[in-house]
Amino acid sequence: MGGVELIGLDDVRSAAANLAGVAVRTPLLAAEWAGGELWLKPENLQPIGAFKLRGAHHALARLPADVRERGVVAHSSGNHGQAVAYAARTFGVPCVVVMPDVAEPHKVAATRRLGAEVVLVAPAERATTMAAIAAGRQLTAIPPFDHPDVIAGQGSVGLEIAADLPEVELVLVPVGGGGLASGVATAVKALVPKARVVGVEPAVAADARESLAAGRLRPWPVEQTYRTVADGLRTQLSELTLAHLVARLDGIVTVTEDEILRATGDLLHQARMVVEPSGAVAAAGYLYRRDELPPGKTVAVISGGNISPALLARLAAEGEARPASEGDARPGG
Amino acid sequence: MGGVELIGLDDVRSAAANLAGVAVRTPLLAAEWAGGELWLKPENLQPIGAFKLRGAHHALARLPADVRERGVVAHSSGNHGQAVAYAARTFGVPCVVVMPDVAEPHKVAATRRLGAEVVLVAPAERATTMAAIAAGRQLTAIPPFDHPDVIAGQGSVGLEIAADLPEVELVLVPVGGGGLASGVATAVKALVPKARVVGVEPAVAADARESLAAGRLRPWPVEQTYRTVADGLRTQLSELTLAHLVARLDGIVTVTEDEILRATGDLLHQARMVVEPSGAVAAAGYLYRRDELPPGKTVAVISGGNISPALLARLAAEGEARPASEGDARPGG
Question: Which pLDDT belongs to residue B323?
Answer without folding.
Answer: 55
